[in-house]
Amino acid sequence: MHRWLSTVMFVLCNPLQHRAALRLLDALSRSQWLSRAELDSLQAFRLDRLLDHSRRTVPYYRQALERAVAPGIGTCRERLARLPILRKEDVRANSVALQSSDLRGGRLHLSRTGGSTGEPLTVANGTAGLIAATAAVLRGKEWAGVRLGDRGVAIKAHGEISIAGRLRAGLVNIHPFKSCLSREHLLRTVIPALSASPPRYLTGYPTSLLCLANLMEERELHIPVIFTTGEMLYAHQREILERKFAGRVFDYYGSNEVSALAFECEYGCRHITDEQVVLEVVDDADQPLWDVSGRILVTDFRNMAMPFIRYELGDRGVLSRAPCQCGRHLLVLKELEGRSQDAIRGPNGVALSGVFFAGRFRNLERIRAYQVVQQSETVVELRYVSARPDAQTEVNEIVAVIREHLGAAVRIEERCFDTLPLTRTGKTRHVIGLGTLDPGKFTAKAPELKLH
Ligand SMILES: [Zn+2]
Prior knowledge:
About 35% of the residues lie in helices and about 25% in strands. With about 450 residues, the chain is α/β, with parallel strands linked by helices. It has two domains: about 1-340, Rossmann fold, CATH 3.40.50.12780; about 345-440, GMP Synthetase, Chain A, domain 3 (2-Layer Sandwich). It has a seven-stranded mixed β-sheet, with helices on both faces. It has a four-stranded antiparallel β-sheet with strand order 10-11-12-13, with no helix packed on it. The longest helix is centred in the N-terminal third of the chain and has 22 residues, at about 35-55. The chain is globular. It starts with a helix and ends in a 20-residue tail after the last strand. Bound molecules: zinc ion. Zinc ion (ZN) binds next to loops.
């Protein structure tokens, strides 16, 4: 599609927001080349503005920030380190008190999300916040070489697609398909459509795209760019997707509460959207960490309707100041290790994470899918879907590994399923730790994660 026509179609899709998003994209295209000192000053300025707004107009922060230090003392990160952490339970208990009385001329957009543990949260955002996140997504797509109007196919993780939604997506040349986990649907609808007109890019949760990839021959299709989001992407999954589609994977990190957090550049570094958010990594004593793994906290400068300041997303990762070959000074989220809660633990103190299982059992053939769920201190349930009649051999392997690490005091219960339960937002979790909600218990619909 011609560039100017693509721009017109994009604006037509949502005239109020998309025109502003394009203006902001121009600004982001320039600010990505700022020096680190300039980015630090920009963050300090935006933090002042957010704190001032929150103190004045948000009942929750009027109290929470009462004892906080005065603005302007120390760097942005030093000042943030003295502020309280906002946890999911705080958001759940204060969803109204966290909303601002000043919407700055915009509208309040409410959404209900699964949250990282699957327990629902109500999140509000303002029009300006949504516009800024859209601009960040557009810049992330440009880093992958995808421009407005390029043909894309989005594999939705769950739910039906409305006619209006299909029309809107059509205006920007995105073709959505509903939930991809059904083999029949993939073989009869999705694969023929992709073969008839291969897109420039494909988006979806890693699990959905892997289901699709596993039904296709190697290089049957050439899709230059594959955007993955919504779930932890493991190295071996990236390798399979790149091989099958003969393209390159770009992983996008965001959450329903704070979206558009980080995008991979052309050199494969996951850069944080530093102009719009501050991402901190802290240890168990809430002290800042660099180059080692810790809990991720985010402060969102965009959402003035429901400010998230030092919000603990529930993920773990590694933050780095190391320069990237691309020349951008936006910080890099070097590793992303998935949900803090996605680990099972034995009475001997040993913990096994989703990353451990994904690495250790990357070549299973007799089992199509599995999920390890900790039911109590000493009971672990291994759920699996058989791919072949001799699946028990691989089930025994997983059981042996869990027992070897967590000790003989742990009882392991095996359960065979036809399909594994997904979270409310259609995600798959390989490991579910104690104290987190089991996705199998959720049936309600949640808003779809957007990547356009
Ligand atoms: Zn880079």
